[in-house]
């Protein structure tokens, strides 16, 4: 037992040395916050479609809010963080707003319009916090180990995504009420805010931020960063949202309603296992090849869904897609951005993705309503393959 404890302690010490404490603290916040958010995300598609009876097109519009609303506030929030040199303050406001929205969901009752308004406010909070949080990671880690740092953060974040549906499943099974899930989600979100306030440290840039947002927009004049943004936006347009993927899995497999909150677990488990090793591998072999690998996994997801293949293949492939692309994209962008504009630059990239994915949700919802789910999947898959011709710009 003693030898095992010593070995375990050595491994933890090496992890602490390799990954800065601030990255681990941000990972802990994301873990707890994702337990809260994924509790809601796991049940919301089925609540809206199966309980409230929304059509695929109407659901596509609501689902688009998950991506589109963040675009409205990302740049403004990121510029404020750069201007004040207080990324922690802006990110903290975003976490607090999202936590408060958890209580707005039970208050919305059965109104899809009110649920949509609460979702919009929640996504506003996410839009405020995401770029400042990622900027804190880039400022806390060595540039040569950013892939690993983002991999560790995304792995901890995904651990929360794994636990969230389990907690939702347990609460829903014990109470039989969606409102109980929302209330427990609020309590967990408050805990995440407390961890953020107590343990995350602010980081300041070495250069002052400009007084206006124009220099951030001018970053698109830099060739490598512009091509990176165009690649991310193009691929965002042909990325079917997770909510539609899970609805298609349920549609194909005919799963019982009470088991639906458990579907994200397969995705989260693969993401959790692969985020750190793929982040390290991206640092060694290049972030472009890793980015391409992730999107080839996405094409495979579309193929299995279109063929009504087994869902136990779809879910880990989706996790592989996120593990190979999410943190890798931020790690690729960070070194391209100058001091004083780091948060704004990341927000610019994330805003383009958010707008693209909003449009994607609406278009895919309309295609499903008009032609059924398969033609839209085929079109999205062809689009991914076409966009991958630009993969070399991701460094």
Characterization of this structure:
- There is one protein chain.
- With 395 residues, this protein is mostly helical.
- 81% of the residues lie in helices and 0% in strands.
- It contains 15 helices and no strands.
- Mean pLDDT is 82; it is low at 1-16.
Salient structural properties:
mainly alpha, 0% strand, 395 residues
Radius of gyration: 20 Å
Separation, N- and C-terminal Cα atoms: 45 Å
The secondary structure category is: mainly alpha
Overall pLDDT confidence? 82
- Residue stretches low in confidence (pLDDT < 50, at least 5 long) are 1-16
Task: Work out the strand percent.
Answer: under 5%
Helical run tally: 15
Number of strands: 0
Instruction: Summarize the helix and strand pattern as letters.
Output: HHHHHHHHHHHHHHH
Largest sheet: none
Overall 3D shape: globular
Helical amount: over 70%
Protein topology:
Blueprint: H1 2-18, H2 21-51, H3 56-84, H4 87-108, H5 112-140, H6 146-175, H7 178-199, H8 214-217, H9 223-237, H10 242-253, H11 264-285, H12 287-306, H13 311-333, H14 342-371, H15 373-387
Helix pairs in contact: 2-5, 2-6, 2-7, 3-4, 3-5, 3-14, 4-5, 4-7, 5-14, 6-7, 6-11, 6-13, 9-14, 9-15, 11-12, 11-13, 12-13, 12-15, 14-15
């Amino acid at each position: 037992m003693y030898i095992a404890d010593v070995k375990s302690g050595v491994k933890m010490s090496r992890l602490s040395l390799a990954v800065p404490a601030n990255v681990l603290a941000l990972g802990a916040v994301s873990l707890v916050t994702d337990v809260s958010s994924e509790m809601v995300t796991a049940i919301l598609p089925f609540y809206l479609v199966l309980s409230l009876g929304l059509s695929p097109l109407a659901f596509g519009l609501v689902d688009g809010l998950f991506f589109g609303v963040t675009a409205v506030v990302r740049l403004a929030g990121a510029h404020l963080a750069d201007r004040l040199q207080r990324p922690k303050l802006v990110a903290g406001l975003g976490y607090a707003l999202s936590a408060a929205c958890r209580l707005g969901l039970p208050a919305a009752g059965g109104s899809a319009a009110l649920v949509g308004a609460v979702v919009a406010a929640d996504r506003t909070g996410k839009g405020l916090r995401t770029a400042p949080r990622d900027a804190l990671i880039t400022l806390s880690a060595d540039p040569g180990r950013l892939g690993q740092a983002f991999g560790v953060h995304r792995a901890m974040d995904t651990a929360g995504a794994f636990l969230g549906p389990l907690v939702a499943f347990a609460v829903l099974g014990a109470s039989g009420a969606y409102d109980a899930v929302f209330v427990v989600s609020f309590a967990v979100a408050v805990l995440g805010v407390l961890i953020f306030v107590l343990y995350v440290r602010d980081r300041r840039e070495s250069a002052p931020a400009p007084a206006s947002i124009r220099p951030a927009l001018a970053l698109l004049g830099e060739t490598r960063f512009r091509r990176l943004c165009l690649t991310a936006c193009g691929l965002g347009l042909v990325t079917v949202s997770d909510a539609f993927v899970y609805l298609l899995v349920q549609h194909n497999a005919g799963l019982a309603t009470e088991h639906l909150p458990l579907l994200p677990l397969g995705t989260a488990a693969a993401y959790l296992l692969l985020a750190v090793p793929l982040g390290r591998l991206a640092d060694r072999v290049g972030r472009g090849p890793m980015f391409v690998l992730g999107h080839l996994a996405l094409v495979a997801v579309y193929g299995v869904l279109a063929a009504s293949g087994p869902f136990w293949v779809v879910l880990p492939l989706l996790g592989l897609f996120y593990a190979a692309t999410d943190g890798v994209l931020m790690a690729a962008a960070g070194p391209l951005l100058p001091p004083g504009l780091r948060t704004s630059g990341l927000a610019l990239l994330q805003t383009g993705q958010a707008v693209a994915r909003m449009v994607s949700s609406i278009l895919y919802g309309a295609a499903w309503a008009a032609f059924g789910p398969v033609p839209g999947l085929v079109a999205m898959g062809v689009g991914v393959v076409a966009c991958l011709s630009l993969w070399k710009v991701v460094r």
